[in-house]
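Page 47, continued from p. 46.
Same chain as before, 455 aa.
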Amino acid sequence: VKSGSGLILILTLLIFQIVWLPIAVYVPALTFSQVSGIGVHTITPVVIVICTFYTCVGGLKGVVYTDVVQSVIMYGTLIVIMIKGTVDLGGLGVVWQRNSEGGRLTAPEWTMDPTVRLSVFSVFVGGTFFKLQSTSINQATVQRFMSLPSLKAIKQTLITFSIGLTMLYLGCIYVGLVCYATYFDCDPMSTGLAGRRDQLVPLLVMKVLGVVPGLPGLFVSAVFSAALSSLSTLLNSLAAVILEDFVRPRMGKSMKETHVALTMRLVVVTFGISSIFMVYVVEKLGMVLQLSATLQSSLYGPMLGIFTVGMLMPWVGEKSVFVGSVASFVTMAWIAVNAQIANITGTFQHTKLPVSVENCYYEFDMSRYLNSTSEYEPRSGSSVYHMSFLLYAMLGALLTIVIANLATLVFGRQDIKDVDENLLAPVLQRFLRKKNYYETVELKKRDTSKVSESS
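Result:
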């Protein structure tokens, strides 16, 4: 990937990180607001100042060390919520029974319909592409991999990461089951006790852990740990990208260590402060989890396609990749924007499972519940922007690959021998050597060895 496509990659990375920063800040602020009653916009500046400070002072090493501590707190709190919530309900059997009776344990749909939000196809096929881009081309992830001493260490870290992430997802799913079992006959969303779905778990924590002094604070610290970990990683990688791709090439050899430190800290502070104001936008855009996944997939999907073409399709030239990536980015942006507009305006919503308010022990506005029943009526979408957000990464990658290959009909195919062998995937390197595409290189190596033997 050269100038045109490389610029697309860098700009995409910057756009994603800049937009994702306020999302990372908003999650802990929302949780703390639910637990303490303090406003979201009062908490946000405090979170950002703390994170910006230790990211500026500690750099990548400081980020990694704090991530370790934050991960321990996060997993520990998740386990406490799972155990205490299950015990309070009367055991695992009660959790299972209530979720089964409420229709929460149904098997995913075996359908190829892309508008079904969580079908087998979208979860396993689309989810594979989604996790592939987040672990293989994500700048923050690659930056950490590059800090390890060897390829073997990177592979071991990736395996450990995959296992830990799977356990985290399973834990979050079980907390969701506990949450429904706790409120199965008095839905907080319908009564107005919770304003957003993102506030359901904090509400559960206050009910389950509130009787034990200090445990709600432990949960808040866990959420803050997860968010601060993401925020500090993004700020650090954002500073590194701007330094290496924009500042260093222009300053050249005149750049000193003091310039490097000043530049990185200035970038961290600037974008940290800007994320405070962008929180006002994020809170209007729907569920945080779906929003972050949509944003990440729609931007990183085309990037995954660029890297795939570069590593596996050496006949595709720079101009063809550039055309394919631009077309893919524009298409995915159009789909993502229209999907968010439909979500905000209510013109399209995914069907929700039914809830109950039969045994609520507190007073609430019954008209609120009656007005929300329309959300549970079966509905389906037909527009392309009604597709599952899990398929965005796959669609973006495939669009880049297909359009880039079609563009070779206009710009011509690149000579494979002109491509640096080290930039290709190992399996493709072995294939090309077998077909003697790099025969001249091998002949030179053999000639050199003969000369050394004769001498």
